[in-house]
Write a structure and sequence with these properties.
The complex is a heterodimer. Chain A is α+β, with helices and mostly antiparallel strands. Chain A has a six-stranded mixed sheet. Chain A has a six-stranded antiparallel barrel with strand order 14-17-16-15-18-19. In chain A, strand 15 and strand 16 form a beta hairpin. In chain A, helix 2 crosses helix 8. Chain A is globular, with a radius of gyration of 21 Å. The N terminus of chain A is likely disordered. In chain B, a hairpin with a 2-residue loop joins strand 2 and strand 3. Chain B has three helices and nine strands; from the N terminus they run E-E-E-H-E-E-E-E-E-H-E-H. Chain B has a single domain, classed as OB fold (Dihydrolipoamide Acetyltransferase, E2P). By secondary structure, chain B is of the alpha+beta class. In chain B, the strands form two sheets. Chain B has a six-stranded antiparallel sheet with strand order 1-2-3-9-8-5. The chains are: A alpha+beta, B alpha+beta. Chains A and B meet through helix 2 and helix 8 of A and helix 1, strand 4 and strand 6 of B.
Chain lengths: 384, 124
């Protein structure tokens, strides 16, 4: 029953996890904390009511460095459908690397670093399991004057309604940061790059830090009684309740951003101009609607439907598949996401999720399952 | 009354020809927070080593195997509303099902409590 296999790679916080009594699990080649002693349920609920601290140093961090913003942005825009050139300094966006068929190679966060110090530099955070393939894909397609530079920074996330208050005590003013913006600042005496974003549906920050400073930062944050460490188990249940995609499960090389209901991440200029991989399919799906769509699924009863469960109509016709499913601790019942044929994607549609041969009645529901608690985004226009 | 254990961390508490099946404290700690237990129907014949129930924790579904063959004569009706019994009291209120044991000699292949404790030492 217990997976005793041990992964080769360790983050710089590995010893801290072991010292805290974490149960470790192999994830994307890393030996990562699945949960600490209080367990997934308690860690999940703590993050929704206070502040959870996550080690996500296994994720890939890199800089794209070119001579000026427009050159670097154009290089990245050739690989994804977001408006990168329109990013303001310190602004962050979510996007996806696309294949030529408009399928998703990975999803990532991109931040334009401040012009005064880093003109022409974009900061990328990509998925751990995809990072080597992403870097190879990007490097093979960059113009000569733009370079990809891998960084071995650590990355921690502080997530939850009290995250801002916790960080305010270390860096006064950090609570004023707008959602999806980034700032270089000191937490105590440690320099970090903090962005107001996350993967839980809560307000919070992702904090990039020099690897040798990370253990100190981890301890400083945990010294606050409002903060507890949270493992990958609760990270998964939190993002599922928040309706956020997990790469390799809810999105992959066959799913387009439109099918995945990520069209919000394709800004107007790019929709109109195209010029990204798979533009023909994606523009067609934007215009005509996709053949299948990612939806929220709320099973009746208490039995969870997991990834891979078939989705059928009440008459038994197969119309889709569950891509993530489990128990939602904050709503106290099972939750799932999956793809269904567009005709069955309307909220309120009743479907069957087939679990061990048994049809479970479920309803299509809007995502997320829990309301998002983000702070306001940055104003779209510069003040006059 | 004796209790026998499997290497997969199920227990069977034997009283006459009846066995009460559940998972050990070690197993519940490994599984984490139990949110549902999918139990068989009363009357079902289950076979030694084959799936008897499925425990759903927050993170995963885990199959529970029958320690011996037999017919399900009762299931723990309280578990659907109180799955946390499995974590809090696996040997007591967190039991899964009762079997009418088909062949008592199958019990001989299972571990005694002392053997199971020694076995835990070897895997932890």
């Amino acid at each position: 029953m217990a997976d005793t296999s041990h992964a080769a790679l360790k983050t710089v916080l590995h010893a801290a996890h072991l010292a805290a009594g974490a149960k470790m699990v192999a994830f994307a080649g890393y030996d990562m904390p699945l949960q600490y002693q209080s367990g997934i349920m308690a860690e999940h609920l703590w993050t929704r009511q206070s502040a959870g601290l996550f080690d996500v140093s296994h994720m890939g961090q890199a800089f794209l460095i070119g001579p000026d913003h427009q050159t670097t942005a154009a290089a990245l825009e050739a690989l994804c459908a977001a408006d990168i050139s329109g990013l303001k300094p310190s602004q962050q966006r979510y996007s996806q690397l696309l294949n030529d068929e408009g399928g998703i190679l990975d999803d990532f966060m991109v931040t334009r670093l401040p012009s005064e110090t880093h003109d022409g530099t974009l900061y990328l955070v990509v998925n751990a399991a995809c990072k080597d393939a992403d870097y190879a894909h990007i490097e093979a397609r960059l113009p000569a004057d733009v370079k990809l530079v891998r960084k071995d920074f650590a990355l921690v996330a502080l997530q939850g309604p009290l995250a801002a208050a916790v960080l305010e005590s270390l860096a006064p003013g950090i609570g004023d940061m707008a959602f999806m913006t980034s700032r270089t600042l000191q937490l105590g005496d440690i320099w970090v790059q903090a962005s107001r974003s996350g993967y839980t549906g809560e307000d919070g920050y992702e904090i990039s830090v020099q690897a040798n400073d990370a253990p100190t930062l981890w301890d400083v944050l945990l010294a606050d009684e409002r903060v507890k460490p949270v493992g990958l188990g609760a990270r998964d249940s939190l993002r599922l309740e928040a309706g956020l995609c997990l790469y390799g499960h809810d999105i992959d090389g066959t799913t387009s951003p439109v099918e995945a209901t990520l069209a919000w991440s394709i800004q107007k200029r790019r929709r109109e101009e195209g010029g990204f991989p798979g533009a023909a399919r994606i523009q067609r799906e934007l215009r005509d609607g996709p053949a299948r769509k990612r939806v929220g699924l709320l099973p009746e009863g208490k039995l969870p439907a997991r990834e891979g469960a078939a989705i059928e109509t009440e008459e038994g016709e197969t119309v889709g598949i569950v891509t993530s499913g489990g128990f939602g601790p904050s709503i106290g019942r099972p939750v799932a996401m999956g793809y269904v044929a567009a005709a069955h994607a309307i909220p309120g549609t009743r479907l069957h999720l087939v679990v061990r041969g048994k049809p479970l009645l479920a309803s299509v529901v809007p995502l997320p399952f829990v309301p998002k608690s983000f702070v306001k985004p940055a104003p779209l226009k510069e003040p006059a | 009354m004796t209790t026998r254990y499997t290497k997969d961390h199920e227990y069977i508490r034997v009283e006459g020809d009846t066995g009460t099946v559940g998972i050990t404290d070690y197993a519940q700690a490994q599984l984490g927070d139990v949110v549902f237990v999918d139990l068989p129907e009363v009357g079902k014949a289950i076979e030694k080593g084959k799936e008897a129930a499925v425990v759903e924790s927050v993170k995963a579904a885990s199959e529970i195997y029958a320690p011996v063959s037999g017919e399900v004569i009762a299931i723990n009706e309280k578990l659907p509303d109180a799955p946390t019994f499995v974590n809090e009291d696996p040997a007591g209120a967190g039991w899964f099902l009762k079997l009418r044991i088909k062949d008592a000699s199958e019990l001989d292949a299972l571990m005694s409590e002392a053997d199971y404790k020694a076995y835990l030492e070897t895997i932890s």
